[in-house]
Amino acid sequence: MSHQIYQILHILGILMVFLGYGALLGRALAGSDSPSLKKLGSITSGIGLVLILVAGFGLIAKLGYGYGEAWILIKLGVWVALGGLIVAINRKPCCASKIWWVLLALGAIAAAAVYWFRFL
Q1: Which of 4, 7, 18, 96 is least surrounded by CB atoms within 10 angstroms?
Q2: Which of 25, 120, 6 has the alpha carbon at shortest distance from 82?
Q3: How far, CA to CA in Å, does 20 sit from each of 13, 26, 59, 89?
Q4: pLDDT in tens, the chain (120 residues)
Q5: How far apart are CA 15 and CA 21, in angstroms?
Q6: Rounded-to-integer distance, Cα 3 and Cα 62, Å
Q7: Which structural domain range is residue 95 located in?
Q8: Roughly what angle, to the nearest 10 degrees, separates helices 3-30 and 35-63?
Q9: Is 65 helix (H, G, I), strand (E, B) or coil?
């Protein structure tokens, strides 16, 4: 597979994670207990996390980067944090507005790792 396909899958995964978490956070902020919305947000974000991981490692291999580079480790840490964030969203709906900003910060850190730290 070409690296462009991996890039598209990686970005699709990112979109799915943020869309799924947005749905879950919106549900929490609205005080809703809709099981179908919880299921849709959880499935969407879960598939997105898998796509991010698989396509990200595919990109690393295709483009010849080493797995120990700092920017890759930062992105892996962000991925782990994103994976754990769903627990916080579902168990602490009272903190949804704070989690919203944490989610935004994690996205900014991941973007900075690729577009800034990678070239240092």
Answers
A1: 4
A2: 25
A3: 10, 10, 24, 11
A4: 899 999 999 999 999 999 999 999 999 999 998 999 999 999 999 999 999 999 999 999 999 999 889 999 999 999 999 999 999 999 999 999 999 999 999 999 999 999 998 777
A5: 10
A6: 6
A7: 3-119
A8: 150
A9: coil
What sign for the dihedral angle of Cα 19, 88, 79, 51? negative
Query: What is the gyration radius of the CA atoms in the chain, in angstroms?
Result: 15
Give CB contacts under 8 A, 24+ apart, made by 65-72: 69/118, 70/117, 71/113, 71/114, 71/117, 71/118, 72/113
Structure tokens that stand for 87 in this block: 């627990």
Place of tokens 């840490």: 77
* Domain count of the fold of the chain: 1
Of 114, 80, 84, 79, the C-alpha closest to 99 is 84
